[in-house]
Amino acid sequence: MIDFHVHTLLSDGVLVPSEVVARAKALGYEALAITDHVDESNLEDTIEKTLRFTESVGKNNLRVVAGVELTHIPPKDIERLTRKARELGAKLIVCHGETIVEPVEPGTNLAAIEAGVDILAHPGLVGEKECALARKNSVLFEITTRKGHCLANGHVASMAKRSGVGLILNTDSHEPSDLATDDYALKVALGAGLTKGDYEKIRQNSRTLLQKVLGL
Predict the structure, then answer these.
(1) Which of 4, 54, 2 is CA-nearest to residue 28?
(2) Rounded to an integer, what distance in angstroms lies between the CA atom of residue 201 and that of residue 197?
(3) Would you give the end-to-end CA distance of the chain in angstroms?
(4) For residue range 137-155, what is the model confidence (pLDDT) as tens digits?
(5) pTM: predicted TM-score of the whole model, two decimal places
(6) Is the Cβ–Cβ distance between 178 and 148 less than 8 Å?
(7) Which residue ranges form the domains of the chain, and what is each CATH number?
(8) What pLDDT score does 95 carry?
(9) Under a CB-based contact definition with an 8 Å cutoff, are residues 2 and 31 in contact?
């Protein structure tokens, strides 16, 4: 399992980063990204702490990537904060998309895609305009195992396949029970109307992104 959307006590997760890594390792994870929620108020501090942790982990049989999830950011500020996060050293930028279970400001999906984030998380009822631009900008859409957010997985999968947008599957973990095995991830993909072949493409997208963020 490669999981690019995991939270810790640095935002609203329940575990410190080291325990998240230990539990993921026990489940057979290959890699994960720590992507705690950030906005204007905590961007610098969270990236600094996450980088410090990932550097302390070093290279082992579980790769740990320092990322962020831009969360409930006004659309007009997403491009600026995306750029700032990269300048501060974040290796992966996830943007909290227009999930149907939270009051996310309309226009967030489009602004994130225009900003060139790496992953648009749980984008909800994403439209054709956003899909066309995501394909052009190589922004991946997330299929999520997260309760609530997963309610739009079928729509996201259908729109992405029709438009040629790359998909990725993440857990959006906040607590130990949210972490997933490959077998469970496959079931979530199948439940979204995808095939086993589609899931293999998702896994390849994850490997390609991991190589990119690690500079391999």
Answers:
(1) 2
(2) 7
(3) 19
(4) 999 999 999 999 999 999 9
(5) 0.97
(6) no
(7) 2-214 (3.20.20.140)
(8) 99
(9) yes
